[in-house]
Amino acid sequence: xxxxxxxxxxxxxxxxxxxxxxxxxxxxxxxxxxxxxxxxxxxxxxxxxxxxxxxxxxxxxxxxxxxxxxxxxxxxxxxxxxxxxxxxxxxxxxxxxxxxxxxxxxxxxxxxxxxxxxxxxxxxxxxxxxxxxxxxxxxxxxxxxxxxxxxxxxxxxxxxxxxxxxxxxxxxxxxxxxxxxxxxxxxxxxxxxxxxxxxxxxxxxxxxxxxxxxxxxxxxxxxxxxxxxxxxxxxxxxxxxxxxxxxxxxxxxxxxxxxxxxxxxxxxxxxxxxxxxxxxxxxxxxxxxxxxxxxxxxxxxxxxxxxxxxxxxxxxxxxxxxxxxxxxxxxxxxxxxxx
Length: 339
Prior knowledge:
Largest sheet: 6 strands, mixed
Number of helices: 8
Strand content: 15-25%
CATH topology of the largest domain: Chloramphenicol Acetyltransferase
Order of helices and strands: EEHEHEEEHEEEEHHHEEHEEEEH
CATH superfamily of the largest domain: Chloramphenicol acetyltransferase-like domain
Distance between the termini: 42 Å
CATH architecture of the largest domain: 2-Layer Sandwich
Helix content: 25-40%
Number of strands: 16
CATH class of the largest domain: Alpha Beta
Number of domains: 2
């Protein structure tokens, strides 16, 4: 199904970032132990392999390098300190020479089938998303890659851009800001458009402590307390979360709420993010999928629709029999409501 054409690494331009650290916020800490997030964008691209390799791939690499200059954590690594006696908090660290793993591949799967609005086998999408790479031990800490990219050609049909990120790297809004910057630079060939937008990179934030914060409660949950400023994130975490001046007041209550083993449905994505506006120079996406919802049947994806601002797209991953039942019930409900 898949032939790897190239494995390479892309760094920010030399001497543009240097050594910088981003301390994890309190909410970032909740995601350290969870699975990575996988997304795939499909674009129609009726061109040859030669055009793809000679024109598209070099442009994507160059524009990615420039984008990483402004979003340095994507090229960095998550640092987890191993010595419990040392009061060091996890951080995302970038040093000169850090880079993002980029895979270039060719696929023989049916592009039109993958981008259709019908049930498809989840394992067909797995070859289209990259791995993050292994954690490595350096002295008294672990270094964990946080972001990777795969660009896959479907000859004379389309291109997919698969991205994988560690969940603690960013939220959906930050990831979309990164992709908007990358796609704008790829289309226009310069970083001036992004810099002129006036939007600050997400890592420009003040570090504060919540006013009431039980560190022991966090350690019992398997994570450590962390400096935090929540202003860049919009929160909707039930009545257990109290907001005041951009801070969560009761960290212990939040931890208990997050890890309580009760039935529920997780939601990936946001209808406020215009996910179908990402144009790298060959048009807007034909299809977008959140592949990582397949890890748990209790997670669905909810995104803005390509067709209309008033519509939404909902994705679900279920065993075949459950999917058949879901489709039947869903169709009956729609017919009963609108017809």
